[in-house]
Amino acid sequence: MRILHVFDFFSPHGGGTVDVVYKLSRALAKRRHEVTIYTSDFKLDREYINSLPEVNVRPFHCISSLAGFYLIPGMVMETKRHLRDFDVIHLHSARSFQNIVIHHYAKKYGIPYALDTHGSLPRTVTGGGAFKPTLKQQFDIAFGNRILRDAHMLIAETDVGVKEYIRFGASEGKITLIPPPFDTEWFSKLPPPGLFRKKYGITEKKIVMFLGRINRIKGLSFLLESFNELSKSRDNAILVIVGNDDGYQSTLESEIAELNLSGKVLFTGFLGGQDKLSALVDADVFVQTSIYEQGAWAPFEAVLCGTPIIVSNNSGAGEDVKKIDAGYLVEYGNRNDLKDKIQYVLDNPTEAEEKTHKAKKYLETNRSFAKEVEQYENLYKEIVEECN
To answer: Is this model's pTM higher than 0.90 or not?
Structure first.
């Protein structure tokens, strides 16, 4: 099949969605499909693109990225001329300039598309300021509702995602549930313990780690407050925050100063590849306390590195963790609950490691790309056959 993937930008700094697009495209290409990615040149990483020689990545020039809306007019003529070259299209966000263009020409030429919003569908769980939900609502009225309605299939990653589609008026018969797969082979060759600790001069302390965008939606103030409570009863722990600043780090730094936690919190910035694996390997416990999260992407990466996890129970990530008993759940906003859970994991490493080991085996057996890529293939074939 000739498959087109579409996402706003394509960089290792882009988080879980970019990682899915990258690895899914590679897996499909290895199965002899012709795979193309339409994206923008926002934060363009040529080395990242060149590491996918079997995939045709088409980055179009981005003239504006205001409010996370990547305007790439150069894509219009390309889509008009060449969209008929594809059998099926996979859109990877709820709202984008790319979606508007693709929807228009897909309808015109009769090319089917699947929509996978990766948790971007809700209007109110954003860290971008009070104006963003209004902009999302305006987008939906002008374009989004039709893009959702005209999709041949809607892909959800968790039951939370299924419910989101239904709330937005989608028919249950259009929704298919495909949990995001993991490149389990990549986690089979982990770096030796101690490299991250050595690099950052962390010796005797226990590492409590967060990995992801530094954004309000990630619940980092809640994590910081809970870590402050933990610090009152033990002085051998350090909070390590790994990830890009998405406009929220200065707020956290002010809170750190107010709580007198200077020297007890480390920001590493973005870490990728082996550096990320080294960080996860050396962490004693991984904590994700998001206000909203579609699924347990980063926590399951920690599990694949053998690191115990604690996840807030209010999102799709908590749902994922609960389903396979992969770690410990905490009530979002309950500082004492989170403090006690972190304390428990640090004080009971054998139990935590056993739970993590079982979850890792489950992910390796059931959630690998080698296994789940067939679900995407079958979905694409079904869509194409329905339209012929």
So the answer is: no
